[in-house]
């Protein structure tokens, strides 16, 4: 099995001052290793940095001429900075697809919750569900909003929130999740990706309404494949699982939210 | 003379914008096998403990039989969940880790992981850490009965509070652990893994040699720290962790050189190896074989790259066997 | 709710192929001065001993008054030609050096170099190495008479055979040298430079504090080796040398954190600093000021880059004074 | 004074499998710091390598639109490999011009001796002397020969040697130097650049004939400006000088050849 591939950048767009969208040509990667939306790739960011950077798959497709992968990432530090400086035609060293994403069923109806840079992987979920899902998307402010048009195209309903009220609901996504579930809790599951405090709150709300909830956890990674045991995620039962191999998506009830 | 000067120099005008092809190399075959404390491996490249799990993950990408040996993830007598996260931080050409020996315990290894590894034509080295000499003894007994190829006694893990590090920094404790391990390991060779966080590593090496160790491996990680300047928190939840990766290579080469001059038992060299040249340095410094760890995270195929690079270097130097590199450095 | 959903998101369609401009930052001024053992510097950035000569060379490129302080090249009682070459080898994100204290001797420094440095508004720190406590004493006397701002007592140079390293690895010897230096330094503060090549650096730090040191500086270089795999010779003529540069940063941060928790005297932190963030880490770990060495070789302007980066970090964090970083790390 | 400049690559040519010739646009570098041929620049070779690489100036000129610098270098290790992968239009971070070159006088007549990658800096000497000089150039083999046409254009006479006899004299340059000085020792000086054993032998021959000899020494460097004292060169009087600041060109009589 091949896990590491040189992938060409087919397109690059800046979505705002910090967020970049790349479309990559990834050979047979999707066909070989796609399981479900919410998986991630592990990207080498230049010679000067030892560790790869995990980036979630935003969306992907198999293709005769080479599978396609869309990544959306935010410039945070040296690695993502380097990545954001790549140009169309450049080649990236990508390992993937890795991990277990959200086990969405094509016939399911989901409440998709994304916060900040946790928004992109939810788009993949939206797209496997033929427009039946509802999306709740939260951003720092209006100028940080990304992919809203895309979600509107692929969801039955899109609710927006910003921390500063510059767009949509003034506040956090968990309030919108509560509002939505109060109106309609006929969802197969709540699926969420974003900062840990957000995930914790969303999980709590889902739990109150008795709706299953799956969350995608962000942990610092080494190998990305389950061998080095650094990407630890504490479970309620006292065990420590690994985001790259056992996750990054976990059942919110299994996660120990108190650490 | 004059005629010579006027002779045309280049017979044809090549395209100067592309690099001319290199002359073809016809490299002779090299015997890549090495023998470390009686254990013969098909090549000198081992994967370092804790960076390769029990082989299952990387085994999806290539045949584990390509490797010389596998140092399995560090085992303890009982299952351990290890330290809380974050457990990794990146540093210039290095990483810090504070995994803290998360592992299923020695019995689970013997029952579940060893049979998996035994499917492959590769030497299996079990790596053990204990809280007391007795624990080391019990583990050695179990592992020697189960039939591993070698036992690597870790007296140098900087990521566990009890035992670990102290054994590695005090010669008399290191010797004691070694003696107990040897007494319980039966015919399985015992290799002791040394800590670089010491004033004089040869003292410890001599102590464990005196206590009967069949080999030493070095270096384990150097203790380091990284701070998130915005949160003002250490990135690692344990505050400090062990430094590995290319950054430590020169320290590792120096220590391998010192140790191999101080003891007669063979050395497994590691610390920062990511290419054939690094491995060749380590062998010239005195290592019989080498281990590759952190380099895996940048490139899962790193051990194979190191092996192929080493073979090419040996062939280019006209060596018939890669083992001819060992100890070949000529100090000034 | 529905209206909200249908609201257009982006009011204008920007060109998505270029990065949108960042919002403007209006950073408040920061007091960059720090006081190290009574010596006040206009900013916390010092250049590390041995990497900046006596300032003449880099002084051609920028005004030396821009720096907080200059640790001059290590001095000995008598002129030394240092070690034979090669004296430098490159390693991953680091270098090895084996200069071996080439210098014109303390008298020539006082006569020729100190007056040159005194032209600038910058603190001058003399760095001294001796073969015996007496030599340290004589040099301290001369330097305190000549009027340097601080004396850095190097007990940790790995590149000289006599004295040097031994003083730095044994607490009682370190204390002895410190006492003698203090007794002869008059009012000039004495800072002792510690070696990282030890099992427990806090032991040495506590010993020199007990002996009256006014400050400690760390880390000096880690001992390492690089081998030319073709000639089979160590690249350095001295076989081994001292490792410095970004590779050692995490080890230096860890040691500065340990030492500043173990002693009350201030710490000058160094080892691998090449940008503002590195310096901020070092200060959060406990350093009052920082030194920049190896980074100069990649970029002669590195000390100024570090200073400006540090100022920006402090300003962004809303600090009124950069000294508020010192010791600010919050361990888990 | 400015010492570090971003310099654009104006042209790039492969002279053989290992040797590359770059022409750089270097701002006012030449005007600011040119002293004589044989100086060098200190070039940053990518983010992954800490130390700069010293490369001799092959030739240079002042220019209203930006001074020009020609470098010729051989791919030896990681740094020169990286450098050889740069393309026209790329920017290099260059410190220079550094050191003291050959103090050639425009009216002088010199015997220029270059061995291997020591050949390029001698071209700068040839060009300051209006074609009066003689060049003795040695290479490993014919296919390693570089810049021969250029020397023929700028010298009164060019003598060639190869180690394997595939072009010109079969043997080392010092034999040709001896032959030339036997015929004609009316030179102001012998100027030489190349591997140390070659320099030693050339110096010996020049000394026998009583002709002054200057040699350019290759030492591993750190700072490149005289501050770190690593680039040591042993002198006969027991002192240790520094190639970057006191050299790289030294009077052969002052150099201790016995270390
Ligand atoms: C499974 C998974 C999926 C992710 N998907 C996305 C995505 O789709 N888009 C996106 O913008 N970001 C995503 N992230 C976060 C992204 O990996 C980090 O922002 C990125 O690694 C930062 O690297 P840097 O070099 O810019 O930052 P630096 O701070 O310089 O990185 C230093 C080290 O810390 C690690 N690190 C720093 N921040 C994080 C973080 N938040 N999570 C994990 N590791 C971190 C880096 O990988 C690197 O090893 C994901 C993280 C995980 C674990
Ligand atoms: C004053 C001077 C002028 C030079 N001029 C030229 C020139 O015009 N053309 C040319 O091809 N080469 C020249 N060299 C040699 C050139 O600097 C080296 O070939 C180059 O540094 C090798 O770098 P690398 O990364 O490819 O090799 P590596 O072996 O990977 O380099 C590792 C380290 O060793 C140093 N190093 C390795 N070999 C040498 C060497 N022979 N001399 C000095 N440092 C070395 C490197 O600079 C680097 O720091 C000159 C050297 C000096 C000192
Ligand atoms: C994530 C990680 C986990 C490790 N776990 C162990 C371990 O369990 N037992 C052990 O002896 N060494 C352990 N080590 C140390 C390595 O085996 C090796 O000694 C060290 O990393 C230096 O080699 P490298 O630079 O090639 O990684 C670990 C290293 C890393 C990076
Ligand atoms: C070339 C060189 C020469 C040095 N000479 C001295 C010296 O004379 N005295 C001393 O105390 N430290 C000396 N050092 C150590 C530095 O001062 C500093 O402690 C070390 O390099 C770590 O900092 P850095 O990583 O920023 O270089 C030298 C370091 C280098 C690289
Ligand atoms: S990153 Fe290595 S186990 Fe998850
Ligand atoms: S390279 Fe620093 S003194 Fe010459």
Describe it.
- The complex is a heterotetramer, with two copies of chain A (259 residues) and two copies of chain B (332 residues).
- With 259 residues, chain A is α/β, with parallel strands linked by helices.
- Chain A has two domains: 4-98, Elongation Factor Tu (Ef-tu), domain 3 (Beta Barrel), CATH 2.40.30.10; 110-218, Rossmann fold.
- Chain A contains six helices and 16 strands.
- Chain A has helices at residues 29-33, 78-84, 119-127, 148-154, 173-183, 196-208, and strands at 4-14, 19-25, 40-43, 53-56, 59-61, 68-74, 91-98, 110-115, 134-139, 157-162, 169-170, 189-193, 213-216, 232-234, 240-242, 249-251.
- In chain A, the strands form three sheets. Chain A has a seven-stranded antiparallel sheet with strand order 4-3-7-1-2-6-5. In chain A, strands 11-10-9-8-12-13-16 form a seven-stranded mixed sheet, sandwiched between helices.
- In chain A, helix 3 (119-127) links the parallel strand 8 (110-115) and strand 9 (134-139).
- Chain B is of the alpha/beta class and 332 residues long.
- Chain B has ten helices and 16 strands.
- The longest helix of chain B is centred in the C-terminal third of the chain and has 15 residues, at 302-316.
- In chain B, strands 3-4-7-8-9-10-15-16 form an eight-stranded parallel barrel, surrounded by seven helices. In chain B, strands 5-6-14-11 form a four-stranded antiparallel sheet, with no helix packed on it.
- Classes of the chains: A alpha/beta (259), B alpha/beta (332).
- The interface between B and C is large, with 50 and 50 residues.
- One flavin-adenine dinucleotide binds next to strand 4, strand 6, helix 2 and helix 3 of chain A.
């Amino acid at each position: 099995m091949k896990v590491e591939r040189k992938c060409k950048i087919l397109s690059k767009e800046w979505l705002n001052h910090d967020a970049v969208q790349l479309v990559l040509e990834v050979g047979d990667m999707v066909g070989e290793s796609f399981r479900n939306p919410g998986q991630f790739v592990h990207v080498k960011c230049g010679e000067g940095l030892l560790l790869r950077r995990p980036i979630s798959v935003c969306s992907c497709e198999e293709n005769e001429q080479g599978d396609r992968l869309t990544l959306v990432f935010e410039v945070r530090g040296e690695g993502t900075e380097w990545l954001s400086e790549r140009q169309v035609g450049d080649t990236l060293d990508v390992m993937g697809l890795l991990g277990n994403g959200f086990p969405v069923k094509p016939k399911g109806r989901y409440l998709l919750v994304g916060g900040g840079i946790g928004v992109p992987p939810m788009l993949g979920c939206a797209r496997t569900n033929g427009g039946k899902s509802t999306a709740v998307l939260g951003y720092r402010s209006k100028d940080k909003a990304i992919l809203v048009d895309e979600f509107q195209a692929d969801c039955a309903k899109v609710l927006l929130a910003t921390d500063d009220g510059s767009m949509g609901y003034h506040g956090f996504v968990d309030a919108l999740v509560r509002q939505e579930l109060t109106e309609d809790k006929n969802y197969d599951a709540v699926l969420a990706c974003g900062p840990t405090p957000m995930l914790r709150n969303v999980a709590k709300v889902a739990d109150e309404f008795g709706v299953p909830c799956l969350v995608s956890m962000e942990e610092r990674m080494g190998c990305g494949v389950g061998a080095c045991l650094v990407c630890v995620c504490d479970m309620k039962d006292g065990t420590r699982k690994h985001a790259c191999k056992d996750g990054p998506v976990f059942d919110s009830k299994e996660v120990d939210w108190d650490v | 003379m004059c005629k010579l000067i006027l002779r045309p120099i280049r017979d044809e005008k090549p395209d100067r914008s592309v690099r001319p092809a290199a002359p073809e190399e016809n490299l002779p075959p090299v015997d890549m096998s090495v023998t470390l404390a009686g254990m013969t491996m098909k090549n000198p490249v081992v994967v370092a403990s804790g960076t390769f799990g029990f082989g299952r993950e990387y085994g999806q990408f290539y045949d584990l039989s390509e490797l010389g040996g596998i140092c399995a993830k560090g085992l303890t007598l009982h299952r351990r969940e290890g330290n809380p996260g974050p457990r990794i931080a990146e540093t210039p050409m290095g990483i810090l880790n504070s995994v803290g020996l998360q592992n299923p315990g020695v019995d689970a290894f013997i029952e579940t992981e060893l049979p998996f590894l035994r499917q492959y034509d590769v030497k299996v080295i079990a790596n053990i850490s204990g809280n007391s000499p007795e624990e080391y003894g019990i583990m050695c007994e179990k592992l020697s009965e189960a039939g591993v190829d070698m036992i690597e006694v870790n007296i140098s893990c900087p990521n566990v509070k009890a035992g670990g590090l102290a054994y590695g920094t005090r010669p008399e404790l290191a010797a004691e652990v070694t003696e107990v391990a040897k007494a319980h390991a039966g015919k399985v060779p015992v290799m002791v893994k040394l800590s670089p966080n010491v004033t004089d590593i040869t003292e410890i090496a001599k102590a464990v040699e005196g206590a009967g160790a069949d080999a030493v491996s070095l270096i384990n990680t150097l203790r380091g720290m990284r701070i998130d300047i915005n949160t003002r928190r250490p990135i690692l939840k344990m505050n400090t962790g062990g430094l590995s990766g290319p950054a430590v290579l020169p320290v590792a080469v120096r220590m391998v050189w010192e140790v191999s001059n101080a003891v007669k038992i063979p050395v497994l060299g590691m610390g920062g190896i990511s290419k054939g040249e690094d491995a060749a340095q380590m062998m010239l410094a005195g290592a019989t074989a080498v281990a590759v760890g952190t380099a895996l995270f940048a490139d899962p195929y790193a051990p194979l790259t190191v092996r192929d690079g080493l073979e090419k270097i040996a062939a280019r130097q006209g060596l018939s066997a890669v083992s001819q590199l060992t100890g070949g450095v000529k100090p000034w």
